[in-house]
Amino acid sequence: MANAIMPTYAPAEIALVKGDGAYVFDEAGKRYLDFASGIAVTALGHGHPALLDALTAQAGKIWHTSNLYRIPDQERLARRLTDISFADYAFFTNSGVEAIECCLKVARRLQFARGETERYRMITFSQAFHGRTLAAVAAAGQEKLTHGFGPLPDWFDIVPAGDLNAVGGAITNETAAIMVEPVQGESGIKPMPTETLKGLRRMADDHGLALVFDEIQCGMGRSGKMFAYEWSGVEPDIMALAKGIGGGFPLGACLMNKEVGAAMTVGSHGSTYGGNPLAMAVGNAVLDEMTKDGFLANVIDVSSYLMDRLDKLIEKHPDVLELVRGLGLMIGLKVKPPVRDFIAAAREEGLITAPAGDNVMRLLPPLIITREHADEAIAIIDTACARFTAADAAE
What we know:
This protein has 395 residues and is of the alpha/beta class. The chain has helices at 37-40, 49-59, 72-83, 96-113, 134-140, 143-146, 164-170, 194-207, 258-262, 277-290, 295-316, 339-348, 371-394; strands spanning 16-20, 23-26, 31-34, 89-93, 121-125, 156-159, 175-180, 183-184, 190-191, 210-214, 238-241, 252-256, 321-327, 330-335, 351-352, 354-356, 360-363. The protein has a seven-stranded mixed beta sheet, sandwiched between helices.
């Protein structure tokens, strides 16, 4: 039977049908250590009992009501997220790119509320990834994302990643906001230096701009703090969250400070499914786990241990591995063979990972992993490296 799925994916020839903690299983029953987490989504691993309990309990009550009515768990999750962040308001979505769209809208609405109606343009950075809507691909500007979809929204001024001088040169009286990933994910796990983020905050303040952080991939504990911006001490005005916030259930959020939130009025934005009772039950359960004593400390401990082991592996296999970088359990391992070939070799040995730009293999394990899981991953990567070393020797 012909595949009826729109041909935009090129999946590996395995189907993962079951998960348990840090492991997934294919149709033949083969077990894999999951260091992709559905691209940083299943932050608490697979089949977490607290998430299962929350989802099934809510499923037995009510699934959907729409935002025409109060949703108590939505109010609760919004309050909890704002209490632990810079924000005063939250808007819930079903995905990361919907959270980005909300960020773009509220940033422009802020300038409208200030009477600065000529301000609509936004400064973004090369090699960024903000999602797949027309506005999001225009914000990133990468040819692989935009090819065939022009003309694109012409709202964005894209400058070299982290170049503060270029940012300063791009600011005009039409600029409304600056949007940045504190850790660029798709381009190869590239943390923005603290001084760069401080410089962006300073420029935003000096010119009356909104500072928007895209923490869809690096937020919700992935960095070792609840939000990656906490490492720099630089607070945004607006922030997008998704991926780990739902632990695998579709959920995103746009957080904003008081001035931004006050610019939004009834009817100025909305979502049919956003903030639905099922998602809110799971989101609260995820936050319950992530705010437990020791949860983030474990992320920091295991990530430090894993990075150290990877550094030693690079010393062992300099002909195959080039460098490692990242923050928390958002790690990029740059390899010398074609990255998809290396990922396939690791998968055959029982490790699931994800590709990124710059010939980088992304390691995005569940945040619940232990040092033992890290050792298992290192052993598999070591074996995969040996396969390439042997192949080179045979040529």
